[in-house]
């Protein structure tokens, strides 16, 4: 199944009790999931701090350097490639696919008319699975058959290609990411996999993430549901469908990838762009009680009052999960070589929970600002939207935070801009501009947030309140 290798123990790891609890969860997952092997890893503050494995072979566990097929975690790599192109100005997420990939509107496969309507889909819709494209390509099960059965891009689009109105609902589409991989290839002028190696894998040091398996690697198996016997699964090259789930990787490489998704890297993709990818692209916004969602190439999961992001993956013979917890500054990777059985995502979430409970994140110490601008200090304190009180706080880097009092109103953080305004970062005010309105003597009299006016007193008669203020003032009836 895997070669005999000693388990790699990360340096600077966790407390013995934490490691014991993590190993117990991994062992239970391997037994209950009836999987030939199971590997888990935990990343804390961007560093691999624990990795271990369990297998059906007594006295032997696969280590963090053994490759497993990671399935749809591949899509996170494709999404990063597309966002690189966006940040360079080579495309806009609102662009229709046909602007950059004319092949999306032509028919090159065996079925005439398979590309109808696909060219008008936007890149953002493809990234967020809101394009309405079919979930799977036509023909035999693409994950278990050779990619040579679908030699051209048109072969991944069935008839009809679009099953739902574009932009209306989340509908997971593997062909959609095959199209995005082709888009990357066309704009870069090289095969998708080579672009990935040069622009993403090499800069991040992901030397064990490859399109085809490199030893040592696990074999993939199906486990009989009613008997303790196994069946080897085929390991096929999926051809043009590769961007949907082709990659092989290791727990160590995926730990580096998780650290990148959390922090960014200047030579690959910025932290701001990665934060954009984590915003839900369909369904309710962050203020509502959603439990699962999808951003731009990233799966979102709300659990225990926090949002985890990453992606799950499956291919015949393999299951995988990568989850990042920004609140705890933790990430987990789980890899198994079984078609079905172990709950990889649940195991990963439990690994994060165990570390967070046993060794909770120690916050950075409070420190005063290095310097305080008197004009900014004068903005702090009590403001009112109509009758609703809010407190304005001054934070680092000239940032502001508006906090509603008494449970009424909308709170948000605001980033300072060079022109003297601030941009909202959260929920309703995300992307909206905060401007300070001043009197002729320079006193701040109002905060204007996208036309919502905040005044120092409730409906302050001295301020230019939209709609005016009743001249009789506050009254009793």
Description:
There is one protein chain. It is built from ten helices and 19 strands. With 477 residues, it is of the alpha+beta class. It has two domains: 363 residues, DD-peptidase/beta-lactamase superfamily (Beta-lactamase, 3-Layer(aba) Sandwich), CATH 3.40.710; 82 residues, Beta Barrel (Lipocalin), CATH 2.40.128. The N and C termini lie far apart (82 Å).
Approximate strand percentage:
15-25%
State the CATH class of the largest domain: Alpha Beta
Helix content: 10-25%
CATH superfamily of the largest domain: DD-peptidase/beta-lactamase superfamily
Number of domains: 2
Please write the string of helix (H) and strand (E) elements: HEEEHHHHEEHEHHEEEEEHHEEEEEEEE
Name the overall outline.
globular
Task: Quote the distance from N terminus to C terminus.
Answer: 82 Å
Named at the architecture level, the CATH assignment of the largest domain is 3-Layer(aba) Sandwich
CATH fold title of the largest domain: Beta-lactamase
Gyration radius, rounded: 26 Å
Spatial strand order of the main sheet:
12-13-14-15-16-17-18-19
Mean pLDDT: 90
By DSSP, the count of extended strands is 19
Largest sheet: 8 strands, antiparallel, barrel
| Structural class by helix and strand composition | alpha+beta
The low-confidence runs, each spanning 5 or more residues with pLDDT under 50, are 1-7, 107-116
Number of helices: 10
């Amino acid at each position: 199944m895997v070669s005999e290798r000693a388990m790699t123990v990360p340096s600077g790891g966790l407390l013995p009790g934490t490691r014991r609890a993590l190993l117990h969860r991994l062992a239970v997952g391997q037994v209950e999931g009836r999987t030939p092997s199971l590997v888990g890893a935990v990343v804390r503050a961007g560093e691999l701090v624990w990795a271990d494995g369990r297998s059906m072979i007594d006295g032997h566990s696969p280590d963090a350097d053994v490759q497993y097929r990671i399935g749809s975690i591949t899509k996170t790599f494709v999404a990063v490639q597309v966002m690189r192109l966006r940040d360079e100005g080579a495309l806009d997420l609102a662009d229709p696919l046909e602007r950059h990939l004319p092949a999306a509107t032509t028919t090159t496969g065996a079925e005439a008319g398979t590309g109808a309507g696909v060219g008008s889909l936007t890149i953002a819709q493809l990234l967020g699975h809101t394009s309405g494209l079919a979930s799977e390509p036509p023909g035999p099960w693409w994950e278990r058959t050779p990619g040579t059965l679908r030699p051209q891009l048109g072969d991944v689009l069935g008839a009809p290609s679009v099953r739902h109105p574009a932009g209306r609902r989340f509908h997971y589409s593997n062909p959609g990411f095959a199209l995005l991989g082709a888009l990357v290839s066309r704009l870069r002028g090289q095969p998708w996999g080579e672009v990935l190696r040069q622009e993403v894998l090499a800069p991040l040091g992901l030397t064990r993430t490859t399109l085809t398996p490199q030893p040592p690697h696990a074999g993939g198996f199906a486990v009989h549901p009613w008997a303790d016997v196994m069946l080897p699964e085929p390991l096929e090259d999926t051809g043009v469908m590769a961007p949907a789930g082709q990659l092989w990787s290791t727990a160590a490489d995926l730990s580096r990838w998780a650290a990148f998704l959390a922090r960014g890297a200047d030579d690959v993709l910025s932290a701001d762009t990665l934060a954009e990818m984590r915003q839900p692209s369909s369904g309710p916004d962050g203020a509502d009680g959603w439990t699962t969602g999808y951003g731009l190439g990233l799966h979102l999961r709300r659990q225990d009052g926090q949002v985890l992001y990453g992606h799950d993956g499956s291919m015949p013979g393999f299951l995988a999960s990568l989850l990042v917890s920004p609140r705890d500054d933790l990430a987990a990777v789980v890899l198994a070589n079984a078609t079905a059985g172990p709950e990889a995502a649940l195991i990963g979430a439990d690994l994060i929970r165990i570390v967070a409970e046993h060794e909770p994140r120690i916050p950075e110490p409070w420190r005063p600002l290095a310097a305080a601008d008197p004009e900014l200090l004068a903005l702090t304190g009590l403001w009112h939207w109509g009758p609703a009180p809010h407190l304005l706080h001054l934070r680092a880097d000239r940032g502001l935070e508006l906090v509603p009092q008494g449970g009424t109103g909308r709170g948000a953080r605001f980033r300072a801009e060079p022109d003297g305004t601030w941009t909202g970062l959260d929920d309703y005010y995300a992307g909206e501009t905060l401007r300070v309105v001043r009197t002729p003597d320079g006193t701040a009299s109002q905060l204007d947030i996208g036309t919502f006016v905040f005044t120092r007193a409730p409906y302050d008669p001295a301020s230019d309140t939209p709609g005016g203020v009743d001249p009789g003032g506050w009254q009793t009836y």
